[in-house]
Amino acid sequence: MISTALATDIMDGLGHRHQAMDPSLRPTRDDTHFAGPAVTLNSVPTEQPHADPYGKIFEAYELMNPGDIVVIATNGDVSSGLWGELLSTAAAAKGVHNVVTDGAVRDVRLMNEMGFGCFCTGYSPLDSAGRCIPETLQEPVVCGGVRVEPGDFVLADFEGVVIIPAGIRQQVFTLCQQKLEGENTVRDELA
To answer: Which Pfam families does the record match to this protein (predicted)?
Structure first.
């Protein structure tokens, strides 16, 4: 897997200079790294109980394919954990094993035990029902300060989360491979 640092170097050169999410998004485990296409959800804060607080999330399950990465924008709301162990278990049954959110998550220990990858801004024991509501699905979102469209490529490692727009994905991969080969040659010469 290419590193987030290498990918951002390449995208900087292509004029895509703001593709790294805010550094406040951190992995729940130090060894977390993943890559795949984004499935997007946009959540908004609420103080009102909702008849179907998880409806959009369950709709998202129907659209998920193995290897997808769930990306949840919370619009600055960190009052509760929208994602947790039960949603991770349901996603894993669809072959989806990773989530990125600029909000809080819950059941972190259980998620870590099951090997579910997660980048978030913090933890909360509070359920999201009556505190936030997933409002839109598979539409562009801004998560961690970066615009993410459905199908954009999510790349995450210990240094952070990077979004590679779908339209330049192959170009970025090709240029990353070329740069990596050049760096490896320099390493060999220095050794």
So the answer is: RraA-like
